[in-house]
Amino acid sequence: MENKTMMKLVVGTEGMFFVALIMAFIYMAYNSGFEPYEVSQLDIKTTGLFTLVLFSSSFTFWMAEKKYKNGDIKSLKIWLIITILFGAIFLFGQGEEYVRLINENITLSGSVFGTSFYALTGFHGLHVFIGLIILLIILILVFLGDFNNSSSNVISTVGIYWHFVDIVWMFVFTVVYVLPKFTKI
Amino acid sequence: MGKFSSLSFYFIQSITNPASFQAERINRVFNSFNIAAAAMLLLVTFLVIFISVKYREKIGDDTEPKQVSGNNVLEAFMIGVPTLLLAYFFYQTIVIEKAIAPGVDKSQQPDVIITGHEWWWEVEYPGSNVITANEVHLPVGKHLLLELRSADVIHDWWVPQLGNKMDLIPKITNHLWLDINMPGDYIGACSEFCGAQHAWMRIKVIAQTERDFNNWLASNTSNGQSPLDSLALTGEKLFQEKTCGSCHRVQGTNATAMVGPDLTHLGSRQEILTGLMKNNQENLFKWINHPQDIKPGAHMPDFILDKDSVAAIAHYLTQLK
Amino acid sequence: MQEIVEIPEPSSSFPGLGVSSDQGLLQWISSVDHKMIGIMYLFVSLLFFVIGGAEALLMRIQLALPMMHFLGPETYNQFFTMHGTTMIFFVAMPAIFGFAVYFVPLMIGANEMAFPRMNAFSLWITLFGGLLLYFSFLAGGAPDAGWFNYAPLNQKNYSSNPGIDYYAMGLLISGIGSVTTSINLVVTILHMRIKNMKLNRLPLFVWMVLVNSFLLLAAFPSLNAALAMLLMDRQFHAHFFNTTNGGSALLWQHLFWIFGHPEVYIVILPPFGILSEVFPVFSRKPIFGYSFIAASSVGIALLAFGVWAHHMFAVGLGNTVDSFFSASSMLIGIPTGVKIFNWLATMYGGKIKFTVSMMFAIAFLIEFTIGGLTGIAFSIVPIDWQLTDTYYVVAHLHYVFIGGTIFGLLAGLFYWFPKMTGRMLDEKSGRWFFWLFVIGFNATFLVQHMLGILGMPRRVYTYPDIPWYGVLNFISTAGAFLMGISMLLLLRIIYKSAKQGKIAGDNPWDAYTLEWTASSPPALKNFDELPEVTGTRPLWDWKHPDKADK
Lengths: 185, 321, 550
Ligand code: HEA
Ligand code: HEA
Ligand code: CUA
Ligand SMILES: [Cu+2]
Description:
The complex is a heterotrimer of chains A (about 180), B (about 325) and C (about 550). Chain A has about 180 residues and is mainly α. Chain A has 6 helices and no strands.
C-alpha cells in the first residue's frame, strides 16, 4: 500500500514537471516563434509508428501484470521482455530522429525550436530510459526467482510509472508533432 | 517649494508627495488603504492585549476553563467582514488601473523613448532628433506617452513622485502614461535588479513648463560645441583618437556610437553617472582617469592615458554645452 | 475502559543499528531514526541561519550610512542573493522538515516514517545541496542575481562567474530532497495513523504538514524545470532565457513564481500548524474552529497556485491579467484572517500561560498581521506599481518570514525542546531572548516600510544622502545587531539547557497530543501500545473521561 501511494505521488509530481516543460514549449512557440522550416522537419509518420510501439508496451506490461497475478511466472517473463523491447525500440526511434535532425543542423544550441524540442522530448526519453532500467532490474529479479510466489505489489507499483511515461508521451506527441499541423505554432 | 508644507518638504521624494495625475490617484487609494489596514491592525492588537490581560492564568486557580470549540456565527463574521473590505479595494484597483494605465494605440508616436542600459538611461525624443542620457527633460501639463525598452537586461523605470513603475524588458516594448502637474526636479531609480551597478542607475526627471521644455529641446538639436580653446582642441583630438568614439556619440563629430551615453550636450547636465557625482571638470577627470574605481563594474574600461591627456579630455567635455 | 492499540514497528527500520550501542557520530550519520534525522535537520537549519544571518549583518553594515565603502557592489550582490536563498531553502525549509519528520510520527502514534531510509537520504541530499551552493564562494564567485535570479541577468553573458550554475545545481539537488521528504510525509500520514485517528482527528500540525506536502509536490517541479532549462542555457547554449538569441525574459518569471509563490506558503503553513498546537495548550482550551483552520489551509494551498503574477505587476501584462491576480491575491487574505481570528478565539475565555512559546505565538498574531496587511497593499495593483521592488517589499517579506515563519518555529522550539531533549529550554533567559529578538526585529524592519515609501529601491549596495535615508537605515542596522545579539543568547540558552536544563518529564505542559505520552526524549521505539484515540485531544480525553471532546 505504502509503495503504491508513494509511486502515485512520484507520478503526480513528475506530471507537474512535464506540465511545466510543455507550457514552456508552447510559450516559446508563441512568444519567440519557431522556424517553420525546422518544424516541418519533424516526421510525424515515423514517430507516430514508434509512438504506437510505446503505447503497445503499456498493454504488454498490463499483460505481464495480469499473468503475475495469476501466478504464471513464465508468461510474466515473456511479457516483461516484450515490454522492455518495445521501450527500447521507442528510444531507438527517438535516437534516430535526433541523428537525422542534427544532420539537418537542428540542435539544442542552434535555435529556439531546437532548444524547446530537445528539452521536452529529451526529458521524456530520460524517463523512458529510467523506466527501462527499472524494468530490467525487475526482469533479473524475476529470473532469480524473487517473484515466484509472494504477492508483492512491486510490479503493479512500477506499472504506475510505466503507464505514466506513456501518457506523458501522448501529450508530448500531441503538442510537438500533431498541433503544429493544425495551428501556427 | 512654497507649495509644500514643511513636513512634506522633508519627505519630498516620497510617494505620498505626488506630482503627477498618476501618483495622485495612487496616493489617494494608498491613504484609504492605510486607514483600513490601521483599523484592522488596531483591532487585532486590541484583541491580543485585551484577551491576554483578561484571561491570563491567575495564581492559585488550577481549574480548567470552559471548553469551547467553535461558533459558526463568529466564523461567518471572520469571513464576511474582510471580504467586504477587500471587495471595496478590488473595485478601487480596477478603476484606478483604468484611469492611469489606459491601453495604448500601437500606432501612436510616443513623446519620449527611454532605453535602459546597464547602468544608464538613453533618452530619445522622436520628432526632434534629440538624444540625451540620464537626465530626462519633460514638459508639465501634457498627457505624455513614454515608450520603454531595454538594450540588455530587465530594468525598471520609477520616479516615486511621478507614479507607477514600468519594467524595461529586452525584446518587449512597454508604455507608460504620465501627466506631470508641477515643474521641478524629481529623482527616481532603476527598480529592477540589473547587475553590479543597479544602485547607480538613478533617474532624474527635470519637469519644465512647456515653453522652457521647448527651448531646451531646441537648444539640444544642435551639434556638439566645437572646442573653444587650445586645451579643448587637444581634448577633442584625443577623444577621437582614444577609442572614446567607439562607444560614445558627440553629434557633428565622427563619434557616433551608442554603446555608452550620448555626450553631445554633456556639459549642460547637472550630474554624471546617474547622480553618482556632480558634473564638473574635476569629477570628469576622476572618472575618465579610472572609471573602475569610481563605478566598479561599469561597462567603460580603464584606459592608459597620461594625466595631461585626461585633463584635456575632461576640459573638452565640459565645453559640450 | 479504553481499548489498547499496539503500535507496529515498520519492517525496514533500524537496519543493523543496535538500540543501546553508542557509536558516537557514526550513529548519527548512519541513523534512519526519524527523531535523530529531525534533530539533524534542525541543526542544518541553525547552521545556515547563523551563516545567512552573518551575511545579513555584513549587508546591514554596508547600508548603515550613505555612500559606504565596506562591501563592493560585487560582494554585496552575492551576499543578498546568498542571504535570501539560504534563508528560504536552507533555514526555513530544513527547520520545517525537522519538526515535521520528528513529530508527525509521534503525533499520529507511529514508530517511524513510512520510508526511514528515504528519510535519511532526503536529509543528506538537502545538506549536500546547501554545501554545493556555498562551494561557489571558493569556485569563482557566489550567485549574484538575487534569490529569484531573473533572466536574462542569469545568463552567461551577464553573469559570467559560475555562481549561478551552483545556484541551479544546489537548488535542484536539495529540491529532490524536499520532494522525497514530502512524499514520505504524505505516505506516513495517510497510512500509519494509529487506529481510529481519522483525518478529522488529526492534530492540526499534522494537517498542515499534509496540505503543505501536497503543495510542495505540486510547486517544486516548476522550479526544477526552470533550473534545468537554465543549466541547459548556461552549459549547452540553449535558448530558453537568453534574449540575445531568441529566448524569453518572461518565461523564467512565470516558471519561477508559479513555484515561488506557493513556496512562501510552504514555509508558513507548518508554522501555522505549530501555532495551532501551542495556542490551545497554553490557553487550556481546545482549538477554536478546528475544521475552519484545516479547511482554510486547503483554501490557501489551492489559491497559492493562482496568484503568481502578483510578483509581475510592473512587467506590463495588461490590466485584465493584473486585475485577475489582484483578486486572487486578496482572496488569500480571507482564509488567513480566519486563522488569525480563530487563534484569538482560542485564547478568549481561556487561562493563558505566558510561557516563552506562547509569547512568541501571541507576538506572531500582531507581527504577522502587519506583514499580511502589507501583502494586501501589494495586491492592490496601483499601490504595487509604486512599491514593488522597494524596501517596502523587503519589510513585507521579513514581517511574514520572521514575524510569521521564524516566530512560529521559535514557538515550536520552546514547546517541543523538552520532548526532544528531556530538559526544559530555560524559560527565564528565554524571556530575555524574546524581548531582545522582538525589539530588534521591529527596529530593523518597521523603518524599512518608510524607506520604501520614500523611494529606496531594494538590492542597492549603497544610496545617496537623501533626507531620512541615513537615519532610517542606521536604525535598521542597529536593530539587526540587536537581533544578532539575541541570537547569540539563544545559542547559549540552547547549549546550556541541553546540558543542564531542568528535567522535563513526559508532559511538562499538560498538553493534549500523542507525542506527550512517549518518554522525553522518546525511546528509539516511540510507543509500545497506546489507548484508543477518540478525539483531537487524546490526552485530554483520557484525563477527563467525563468531559471528553465529542
Ligand atoms: C511566509 C511568506 C509570505 C506570506 C505568508 C505572504 C503573504 C502574502 N503576500 Fe507576500 N511575499 C513574500 C512572502 C510571503 N507573503 C515574499 C518573500 C515576497 C517577496 C519576494 C521577492 O520579491 O523577493 C512577497 C511579495 C509579495 C508580493 C509582490 C510584491 C512585489 O514584489 O511587488 C505580493 C503582491 O501581491 C504579496 C502579497 C501577499 C499577500 C496578499 C499575502 C497574504 O497571504 C497575506 C494574508 C494575511 C493577512 C491579510 C493578515 C491577517 C488577516 C486579517 C487580520 C484579516 C483581515 C484582513 C483584511 C481584511 C485585509 N507578497
Ligand atoms: C526566512 C527568511 C529570512 C530571514 C530570517 C531573514 C533575516 C534577516 N534579513 Fe533578510 N531576506 C530574505 C529572507 C530572510 N531574511 C530574503 C528572501 C531576502 C531577499 C533577497 C533578494 O533580494 O534576493 C532578504 C533580503 C534582506 C535585505 C535586503 C537586501 C537588499 O535588498 O539589498 C536585508 C537588508 O537589510 C535583510 C536583512 C535581514 C536581517 C538583518 C535579518 C536578521 O533577522 C538576521 C538575524 C540573524 C542573525 C544576526 C544570525 C545570528 C548570527 C550570529 C549569532 C553570528 C554573529 C555573526 C556576526 C556578528 C558576523 N534581508
Ligand atoms: Cu537597471 Cu536596475
Ligand atoms: Cu507571492
